[in-house]
Amino acid sequence: MKDQHIISQMKQRDRNALKEVYKGYKVEFFKFASRYTSDTNVLEDIFQDAIIVLYENALAGKLDELKSSLKTYLFSTGKFMIFKKFRDTKEIATDEAYIFDQNEIAVINDVYEDQGPNEYQQKLVENFKKLGDKCREILELFYLKGLKLDEIMSVQGYENKNVVKSQKSRCLKSLKELTHAKNG
Predict the structure, then answer these.
(1) String of DSSP letters for 54-95
(2) Cα separation, 23 vs 67, whole angstroms
(3) What average pLDDT does the segment 13-20 reach?
(4) pTM of this prediction?
(5) Residue range 31-47, pLDDT digits in tens
(6) CB of 165 within 8 A of CB of 149?
(7) Interatomic CA distance for residues 29 and 38, integer angstroms
(8) Interatomic CA distance for residues 75 and 15, integer angstroms
């Protein structure tokens, strides 16, 4: 349950959750990864990159149904990054091929096969920026931070839930219209 709590905090952009993961796993990651390289600068870079991937995937909701522990996900991501770096730079020559387990393969696919936002998603983001501040805030609170209408009502100072619901509906409709417009 602790991992899901941390993921939930990261999705709410809570930097303390990110710090907790960073501080909690850094020493252990270095011990784990030192069998692949002793260059602490490389280990530091890879650990930071793996933390960034973890954070971005948490924000994107890709860790909501995580099958492994957060630690396994982070370490597998880091290990793959190490192997990729060495393969790309040919710094280490090995005769044997490393065989990834199923968890590691799932992590690799998540991290490296994601092509980023598609054209529609990019258009959605561009049009989201065109909405007014109140609309952006309501949609962010509801869809990105996962707040309920009651919570949004108190955060934004509305008098009742139905006003929030209709405002959210209007904002979503505006976003859809902008996104589906020929030149929007």
Answers:
(1) HHHHHHTTTTTT-SS-HHHHHHHHHHHHHHHHHHHHT-S--S
(2) 23
(3) 88
(4) 0.50
(5) 888 887 778 888 899 99
(6) yes
(7) 12
(8) 20
